[in-house]
Amino acid sequence: MRKIILSVLGVLLIIASIFLAKFLIASKDKPKPVQEKVVKTVFVDTVKNGGVQVKIPANGSLVAKRRVEIYSEVQGIFKSGSILFKPGQKYSAGQSLIRIDASEHYANVQSSKSNLYNSIAAIMPDLRLDFPEVYQKWQNYLNAFDLNKTALKLPEMSSEKENYFITGRGIVSNYYNLKNLEQRLSKYIITAPFSGILTEALVTEGTLIRNGQKLGEFIDPSEYEMEVNVSKSYANLLKVGETVELSNLNKTESYQGIISRVNGSVDQTTQTITAYIDVKNPDLKEGIYLEANIDGDTVQDAIEVDRNLLLDDQQVFVIKDGLLDTMPVTPVYFSETKVVLQGLPNGTILLKKPVPGAYAGMLVKSFEAEANL
């Protein structure tokens, strides 16, 4: 029985070997599958060299070109007026901003005026006898003297004797003491130096104002200036009177500015030079942050492309006969997102957008070519 089982197994093994041999022979003759070549579709552009205007970016905040910090030179109570001293309040040129109670000082001024008048009146009899030729002009001065008005200028001295006589009676010193008091009296009323708006108010009506105290800030909202810092390498491009493009951060609004001043020294820490740009627009406010594009030199025989198209070894990808290749270029100017290049011949097919994993020799086809198929 055992011999019969072994014989059957042997026959089956021989038959299986024959079938396996036939299968291997048949599979050996089948052709190997051909791997399909992958061709990437890319966006391209044709090089057309020309003049490229270099734009120097800068930014800064607007500040009113005419602004005044209001300080008090006298002491007293802030008197209320017809217009409240509040931020946002508009004033015309010459209009009173602040009135300080000056009743005590006014009394001193009037007392000094009276003393001057009395001292001149006291010498009139002597002038009639000793200096009859000058008597009339001093009499005219007394006749025009008004205690309710600013003191008039003393008559001109016509001789050395007259000068000694008038000065010796203390009239000249009394006059200048009076003018000093009158000058100080004018400081009790602070007027607007120009038409503008109050942006800061640190006191209110009834406040005791002290000498040297800051009272507020006043600006002219019709014209602003922006301070920008530009690399010293572009200092020769900053020209007074040149127009500058300004825009807000969202690029939704644009304005026209003019370079009004350029600092003559370079900041040693940042190696930048400061320029000031004037801008007028009713929509602008102090403190608004703007970006500026200052016109630089025009680079000839160049093109402007995205910075991410420039390789680390100062080469760019070009397309030749459906394959990617590299070509050396000369970068002339870098901005935040763009680079100006020279050295590419006209008509060169250049990548318009970077291709992930790109390498020299990669099969590609342009987007336009695929669209025409």
UniProtKB/TrEMBL annotation:
Superkingdom assignment: Bacteria
Alphabetized Gene3D superfamilies for the sequence: 2.40.30.170, 2.40.50.100, Helix hairpin bin
Matching InterPro entries: MdtA-like_BSH
Sequence ranges assigned to domain Multidrug resistance protein MdtA-like barrel-sandwich hybrid in this UniProt record: 66-214
Name this protein carries in UniProt: HlyD family efflux transporter periplasmic adaptor subunit
